[in-house]
Amino acid sequence: MQSTIDISWVQLALFMLILVIPFFINRYLKLALGKEIISAVLRMTVQLILVGLYLQFLFELNSLPLNLIWLSLMLLIGASAIIGSARLPKRRLYLPVITGLVVGVTPLIAILLLALLQPTPLYSAQYMIPMAGMLLGNCLSGNIVALQRLFSAFEEQKDQYEGALALGVTPYQAAFPFMQSALKQSFAPILASMTTTGLVTLPGMMTGQILAGSDHMVAIKYQLVILVAIFVMLTVSVTLSLILSIRSCIDPSGLIRVRLFNK
After folding, report:
1. Burial environment of residue 263 by CB neighbours within 10 A (0 to 12, 13 to 18, 19 or more)
2. 81 and 33: one domain?
3. Dihedral (C-alpha) 49, 50, 56, 62: value to the nearest 10 degrees?
4. How do residues 157-213 score in pLDDT, each as one tens digit?
5. Which region, left, alpha or beta, applies to residue 251 given φ > 0 means left and ψ of -120 to 50 means alpha?
6. Residue 145 CA to chain centroid, in angstroms?
7. Family per UniProt (predicted)?
């Protein structure tokens, strides 16, 4: 099987010229997204290069404390990105969100490393860091959608919420329909993706392994493991984040403790 074909830095730079297309669309339709596009591309490029250099060092050192520190940073940054993108107050929601991420990812990483893959050593950075990154990365958008939907419902369906409280139900019971709707919207994209995987899309991990020369069936088995793990991680982290967010942002009388959206 053919080994991975390298891409030179010159080839990569020339390929980046294709970004003229979204820039043209942005300018033609007057979307005013030029600065955001430039910032996103520059940050993506610099961050990936720096992470690549650091991961090379991390993999060679293969230290459990360093692996845990890196994983902790991923969790902290991920929680901050979720709340920031959802335009919600960090003071009340940071702990609920990061708790959901930690509870979601920790058991799965333990199962993958200790029971399924069993690398040597068990805390191998080559497996631990990329898998944690895939799990967390694929859960960001789901958490953002769920939080936005939940707190939008409090704004848009305020009368329904207050009416339920007036009937004597607890604040959690009054908010429960909003949480159900938020969870359904959060899970919909990944369920659609799982349904069409292999027919419409070829997932990134499987494609990467095949391009790297791995056996096709080995790549498929890894991809199935990751997709199931991502779905479990998403359901656990989003559900726990919403439950804890409701308890954190609503007082016993049912009043919202914080302004919902940062202006």
Report:
1. exposed
2. no
3. -150
4. 878 877 888 888 888 888 888 999 999 999 998 898 888 877 776 666 666 766 666
5. beta
6. 11
7. Belongs to the UPF0014 family.
